[in-house]
Request: fold
Amino acid sequence: MSSNINTPIIALIGRPNVGKSTLFNRITRSRNALVDPTPGVTRDRHYERVVWDNKGFILVDTGGIDDNPEDALVHHIREQAMFAIEEADIVLFLMDAKEGVTPADWEVIDILRRAKKPVYHVVNKIDSASKEVELLTPFYELGAEQLWPLSAEHSYGFPSLMENLCGAIASDDTEGPDLPEGTVKVAFFGRPNVGKSSLINTILGEERMVVSEISGTTRDSVDTLVTHGNYSYCFIDTAGIRRKGKTTEKLEKFSILKSLAAMGRCDVAAVLIDAEEGITEQDTKVIGYVLEEGRGLIVLVNKWDLLGGDKKKQEQVMAEVGRALPFVGYAPVLTVSALTGYGIKRFFPVIGSVFRQFTASFPTSALNNLLRDAVDAHSPPIYKNKRLKFYYTAQVGTRPPKFVVMTNSEKGVHFSYERYLVNRFREGLGLDKVPIKLIFKDKSEQRKKNQG
Ligand code: GDP
Ligand code: GDP
Reply:
């Protein structure tokens, strides 16, 4: 069972040029880090999901804008610090040993102190032990409990920083509350006001089901266990949605990063879109994350009632949604209304089929037959004067289904043939509603590895 805690967000903050991106790269590109290199749709990103010594976190580099004029600079740093305060669970505050303590550093310290978040005060560019005392001394006046000398570039101080940091994070495999076996974990995402809490309440109110609350280990999350027919579902509370409905009507602040942090906990992500407003850039970003995270996806176009049965408008909205989401053509799109209850009945059956596909596994013999038929029906291209060959395949994972395909040339498998095979696997295995992954491996490389 997976953790009941959202993945912690660790933010790197500090002035431009202190070494934030160097440290970001050192952490994310290290061999210790298991970073899934799925090419995503969000390329401009400054975050990475990292698993380090079995501890998972999302690392965020808040830098990036560094050609601001002088006065705007302080403003920008303040903004960054504010961002870190709101989003991050842990802050790595970097300073530059070569520059000493600057007024901007004091500003950040002041903000961080008030925020009461765990902060690591890191003094970077201390490239060797011999310089440590001399370079670190000026920073003691900050009054930080502990200073962390570091060379992001040459790794001095890095192992102890990482060890301590990981010690502060709960293990990735921390047991969550006991859920009945086969429980489908569903999380709702979407911008404020799109109707998440209304929809959940409608679902819980309309259908015959048994509902119980599971208090999360985090401050404001309340998960809901729902038993419906023979199945159970856990509605993961991503942003205090449930609590909001009960207490104040305080408008939730939308955080794409927090959505990402919650995504690790779900099997199926239900992303809500407002039918009247249409799909927005934030919506496509969240859906991009679902894709990158390899979760099952259901798109719910809510407030369908507001279109008032206007066929033309309805078609327009659906066409727009389709155009905006070319990467996730497999995802079921449901039109619903939390207000009238329209479409809600279809929700559970769709979750069920997405989940069954998401967790499906297949015998190797059937997979090999499928691969052989696919290759016979459409011969692979020539690559470097040799015909591309596929030897065998096997399933190597579920959630979502992943298959390894052994070939004579991994590099020779171009996008179009890969897409062809993916489509044949989808058809042949009845996996039309979830992402699937084909991983191509060189047979000769594999043999070398096994021998070496
Ligand atoms: P950012 O603007 O905070 O992201 O800073 P960068 O990571 O881009 O680094 C700014 C400059 O400092 C680059 O020229 C880096 O090579 C250099 N730098 C980063 N870390 C170290 C370090 O540990 N030691 C030294 N000597 N230089 C570093
Ligand atoms: P959340 O911020 O995503 O949790 O959104 P809420 O559930 O608080 O809904 C925001 C507003 O939209 C409320 O005023 C709801 O009554 C309204 N709303 C939610 N769903 C629907 C719907 O299907 N149709 C209409 N017309 N209004 C809705």
